[in-house]
Amino acid sequence: MIWVTPLLNGVLLGGYYALLACGLSFMFGVMRIINLAHGDLAILGASLVFVIADNTEISPFVALIMVLPLMAIIGWALQRWMLERSLRAGVLVPLLTTFGLAIVIENGLFEYFGADSRSLAPYIGDLAFNSWAITGSIYVGSLAVLTFAVAVVLLGGLNLFLAHTSLGRAIRATAEDPDTAELIGINARSVYAVAAAIAIASAGLAGVFLAMRETFSPYSGPLQLIFAFEAVVIGGIGSLSGTLVGGIVLGVAQMFGAQINPQGFLIAGHVVFLVVLAGRLGLGALEARGGLHGSFRRP
Amino acid sequence: MSLLSVEQLDARHGLLHAVRGVTFAVAAGETLALVGANGAGKTTLLRTVAGAHKRAGGRIVFDGADVTAIPAYARLRTGIALVPEGRRLFAGMTVKENLLVAGAYGRPGSWNLDTVVEAFPLLRARINSRAGNLSGGEQQATAIGRALMTNPKLLLLDEVSLGLAPIAVEAVYRSLDTLIKAGATIVLVEQDIARALGVATRVACMLEGRIILEGRAKDMTREQVTEAYFGLKREQRATS
Question: What number does CATH give the domain B2-237?
Fold first, then answer.
C-alpha cells in the first residue's frame, strides 16, 4: 500500500505536467518552434490572475476566464510580429528569439512584482488543501484531481477539435505541409497565429493551476519549461495523447523518486527522461513515430 | 475571351532563369497540354500561375482580373487550383480529411465529397485510409479530387502520370477524360507526348523556359512535338 499513494499522486501530478506541456507540444507540432519562453508565459498567466485576485474580490477561476483570451491575444501577436519573422531567418532563430522573450518576461515580472514568491492558494479557499479519502489511508487532493480533469478535458478537447473541425483539419494540414495547405486555400500565417494563440492560452491555464498548488516567483518559468519539455519528449513530440502519458510517467517517476530519497523527486524525473530519450534515439523510434522530424499527428 | 491570360511571365530559381517571358492564354473549356523535357520550366510555370512560386516579372490575368500579386491561398478562391507534382497529400490525414479540408477553404460549387468519390470510384473503398498508405494511383486520384473539392474554374495538373503504374495512369486519365468532356478548363503538364496529344485541345512545348511550339493538338503530329521537345526546331507556331 505504501506505493499506492505516490502512484496516485504521481498520476495526478502528471495531469499538471500534461497541462503544462500541451502548449509546448502543440506549438512544436504545428510550427516546429520549441518555445523556450513557454514556462515564463505560464508564469505570466499566473501573475495576471494573481493581480486580479489580489486587487479585487474576483475568484481566480473567474479571473482565469478573463486572462485566457488575453493570453491567446499575446500568443497571436507573438506569432504575427515575432515568431513568424524569426522562422523566416531559419529554424534555429526562434530558439534564440524565445530565449530572449523568456528573459524579457522574467525581468518584466521581477520589475513589477519583485522577487517575492506568491501563490493563488489563499484565494481559492478549501480547494487548496481539501482531499478525498479513497480508502482509510489513501487520500487524493481535490485540486490535484481538478487539475488532472482539466488536463484531460483540454487535451481531449484539442484532439476532438483537430479531428472534427475545419479549422482543426486546416491546422493539421498546415503542420504537415504549409506550402500545399496554401494551395488548397488555407492561409498558413493565420493558422499559425491561431495555433500560437491556443498554445499560449494553454500555457497561461497551466500557470494558474501551478499558482494554485504552490508558490511561484518571476523566475519559476525555466523549471516549468524543463518539466514540460520532459513530458513532451517522454510522450512523443507532436502527440497530444502522448503528452498526457508523458506527463503521467514523469509525475509517477518523481513521486517514486521522492519515496526513495527526498532528493529523488527531480532526479528520478530527469533519469526517466534521459532513458526514454536515449532509447528513442537509439532505436530511431523518434523519427519513425513522427517525432523530432514529424508533424502534428492525427489524434 | 480567355479565362487565363499569361503575359511575359518570368520566374527564377535563384540564378536560374526557369521561365523566360512566357505568354499564353487558355479559353474556358479548353485543355492545354504543356510538354517539354525535364528542366524545361513547366512545373515552375504552373506553380507561378498558381501563386506557389514567386514571379520575377510579367502578368497573370484570370477571369478578367489581374491576380499577379495575389497569394496562393487567395488565388485559389478566384478559381485556380493546382494538383502539384508528387501529389503532396497530407499523409497523416485520411482521404476523406484531405478532401474535406480542401472543400472547407475552396469556392462554393457542385463538387463535394459525394461527387468527387463518384468521379473517382477507386477512392470509395479507401475513403477512411490514411493518404500515406494509398497506392500511387489512389494518391493521384485523391490529389485531383482534393483540387476539385475547391470547385476550381481552372485546374492545373502537374505530371499526373509520373511514377504511376500503367493501369493507374489509365484509371486517372479515364477520370480526367470525364472531367474534360464535362467542360472543365485544364492546363496539364505531361511528359508523355502521345497522351498529351490525345487528351488536349491545344499543346504547348517548352524548352529552356520558353514556349517554342504551340498549336491545336489535332493539327500537330507527334514528330513535330518531339522535335520541339528535344530542341531540334525552335520558335514555331502550328496554328494561332
Answer: 3.40.50.300
